[in-house]
Amino acid sequence: MFERLMERKRFIISLGIYFVLLCYSYYFYFYIFQDYTYQVGYALNLNFFKLIEAIIFTILLGLVYFYYDINKSIYLTYSFILYNLLFVPLSVFYWMSDNARPYFYMVVISFLILEGIFLFYRGFAKRERRYRSNDLYVYLLALTLFLFFAINIYAYIKYGHSLYYLLNLEKVYDIRFKARAVIPTYLKYILQWSALVVIPTSIAYFAKIRRYYLIVIPLIVQALIFTINGSKFYLFSLIINLFVFLIYSEKLMYYMLPALNLFITSVLLLKNNFIMSVGIRRAFFVPQSLSFVYYDFFTKHPKLYLSSSILKRFIKNIYKIDSPFIIGRYVYHEPQMSANVNYIANAYSHIGFVGIIIFTILLALVLLGFEYFSENNRNRKYIVLISFSSFLALVNSSLLTTLKTHGLLIALFMSILFLKSFRE
């Protein structure tokens, strides 16, 4: 009981520090370090009424994580991560740039729905559930990992580049554009699923059977995949994935906020242009700026109505391109720019506010899938390792893209295989 009280106290203090650090880092990076006073998208128009709103809803939505133990729920862990990486930075950006109030409240409602569905499930779900392992699942899991690894090696032999790019991340754009042109679409999906789901699953498998030395195999394959298409997200997401897995395994999810505070403080103290660009601008504020840009554009222009999704055969896309390229072309005047945005803003670009509600419910159902199969299972911690990289894409990608391209559905499938492959 005492430990739980200390966790709650730590959560409140850390949340307050996190909010203040984000406010300061926004001001410091854009208006002192880079002097971006006149750059479009990052205005400094402090609105203290909106500050009050931001604080109220940050506290209100944080009450669920204050009351319930995050460490005992995959659903709550993932919604907590979205709260920290999406909602709190958006609240800071909202009041410091004096941005659109209607969209901010749409995001608030989205998180209320996400948390409300958890509370509903919590109230009615049966707690006791037992699973038995089956050799069929073990063989199926091993076969799946082997097939993906074989395809990855084939792709590297045919399309791979030198490991030199691992030490020169700023030059990966040279191979990224080449990869877009020459790699077949089906192989792009397989590489994405491998990097975000299959590699973490193999690490989880070797860790579970305590063959830790074999973990070097998926790490090497991950490096090879990176040299094929130059996606830095593969490298950074795996590092973040392992970090989240470790703190979840040790029931330290409440230390996530102190860790974020330490990270932001370190980045601010280093004052390195590249590190600050990635650690402050890209990680926290580019997604929020793009969210309000999406809202502003699709409030004034026709919405997509899922015409760039699996329904594109039945609905005409008047723009003839997907929403990230629409924003790149018509807002930033860069036709080749892909302005990816989080699942909430993307949902608005398709069906407006109703789309936000629909896609939030769909996301909740996916999280309930992870929750249902992992509840009361001692191997639950490995599900975070298997699925977190694909889940993290929601901060910068649409829900449908995350489910398909980034492999969140594959992650759910692999999680079920993993849980059924081992006895409790």
Automatic annotation (TrEMBL):
Keywords: Membrane, Transmembrane, Transmembrane helix
Coiled coil: none
Segments passing through the bilayer: 12-33, 48-68, 75-97, 103-124, 136-157, 186-206, 213-246, 252-270, 347-370, 406-422
Domain of life of the source: Bacteria
Name under which the protein is recorded: WblL protein
